[in-house]
Amino acid sequence: MFDGVPLSWFLIVATIMFFVGIYGFLVRKNLITMLMSLELILNSVNINFVAFNKLLYPNHLEGMFFSIFIIAVAASEASVAIAIIINIYRRLVNIDVEKMEEMKY
Length: 105
Fold this sequence. Notes:
The protein is mainly alpha-helical.
């Protein structure tokens, strides 16, 4: 399919990335590591889009376009999230989720 690489390998890698991202998002208390876990989840979805697009419609690029759109949304989400995290750190001198009791403007 992908020059000798079967679809199941892509699905296994995407599944591992997805569940590592879910685990990191639920277990970690640091905002930066939670953001990185969210990026892992989005990248696993991108792998699935590209793999299934190549399998089902090898001459079309819809999966690639969805992946590029998700990458653009993830980049903007990451920049806004990092700006929010920097403002929280400046105000509270901490980015631990459990130690934040209230959010102020």
